[in-house]
Amino acid sequence: MLRVEGLRVVLGEVFVLDGLDLEVAEGEVLVLLGPSGCGKSTLLRTIVGLERASGGHVAWSEEDLTSAPPHERDFGLVFQDHALFPHMDVASNVAFGLRVAGLPVEGREARVAEVLDLVGLDGFGERRVDTLSGGEAQRVALARSLAPGPRLLMLDEPLGSLDRALRDRLVADLGVLLRGLGQASIYVTHDHDEAFALADRIAVMGEGRIQRIGTVAEVWSDPVSTYVAQCLGHENLIELDRSGGCALGRLGDGPGTVLLRPGKLVLSHGLDGIEATVVGSSFRGGRFHLRIAVGDMEILIPAPEAVPVGSGVRLTIGSDPVIPLVT
After folding, report:
1. For residue 280, what are the contacts with CB-CB under 8 A and spacing of at least 6?
2. Where are the domains of the chain?
3. Which residues lie below 8 Å from residue 258, measured CB to CB, with a gap of 6+?
4. Sequence-distant (≥ 6) Cβ neighbours of residue 78 within 8 angstroms
5. CATH fold for the domain made of 237-325
6. Which of 73, 30, 21 is nearest to 215 (CA)?
7. Taking the model in full, what pTM does it have?
8. pLDDT tens digits, residue range 227-286?
C-alpha cells in the first residue's frame, strides 16, 4: 500500500502540507476532497515525485520512495488539462510511456489497443488529438497513464474542465473502470458529488492536513467539524445560543454549532408543530427541496410535492436531531 507519514512541503514561509499522514490500500479508490488551495494537488505532485518534500516520508509497502525520482516510483498521474502531445496521434500519445520504458513495438501496439478498449476508445488510435472532444481527450490521458500498469494511479481534478452532464457520465464510467481493474487510485476533486460517486474512502483536506477520513457513510453521518460538513455539502448548520437553543427549540447544552441530521425535520400534516414559512423551492435529484424560514434562521428540507413560496407551514422535529460539530 501507499504510506505517507508526516509529509511536509514548505514553499517560502508557507506550510502547504503540514505533517500529513495518509494510507491507500491496493485496489482502493481514495478521493481527496477540499477547496482550491488546501494542498490537494501539491500532495499528488509530492507523492509522484514532481515536488520535493520538506520533511516526512513517502513509501510503497516497505519501499521508501521519498528521494526516488518520478520514473522509479511506478505511479501514474492524470492532469486536468490532459497534457497530450498535439503533434502525435492517439496511439502515439498512449504509447509514449511504453516507448520510454523500452517496450518492443509489438508489445506497445498490443498494450495500446488494450487500454484504448478499456477506456471506450477502441478504433481511435489514428485520430489526431486536436479532433477529440474534451471527454475523449480525457480518456486518452487516462489510457496513457494506465498503459504502463502503474501500481498507483492519481487523477488531479481530471473532469474539472468538462460540462456537468459529461462529467457525471465520465465519473460513472471511471468508477466502473477503476474497480474493474482493482487499481489503487487517488482522485482529487472539490466537488462532493464526484467524491460520493467514486470513493471507497474520502479524505477531506484543509490547512495542509487530513481533517476527516472514512467511508462515504462515515464522513457524511459524522463530519466532526463545521469545515468538513461544508466541504461535504451539508447545508443545515445551526448556531445555538448560550442555553443550547435556537428557533427550533433547545437542541444542545450550550452554545456551539450543530448539524441537523437529514430527515429529522419534516413537514407536519396536522395543526401542531413549529410554525415556519416557505421562502424558496427547487427541484433536483428527483425531489422537491424547500427553503424554510423559522424565526431568524433558514433550513433546507425535502418535500414530497411543491409548496408555493410564501406559504405558512408547520414542522415536526424528530428525536436526537443534531450532530455537535467543532469549529
Report:
1. 290, 291, 309
2. 2-224, 237-325
3. 237, 238, 240, 251, 252, 322, 323, 324, 325
4. 138, 141, 142, 145, 153, 154, 155, 156, 158
5. OB fold (Dihydrolipoamide Acetyltransferase, E2P) (2.40.50)
6. 30
7. 0.89
8. 999 999 999 999 999 999 999 999 999 999 999 998 899 988 777 889 999 999 999 878
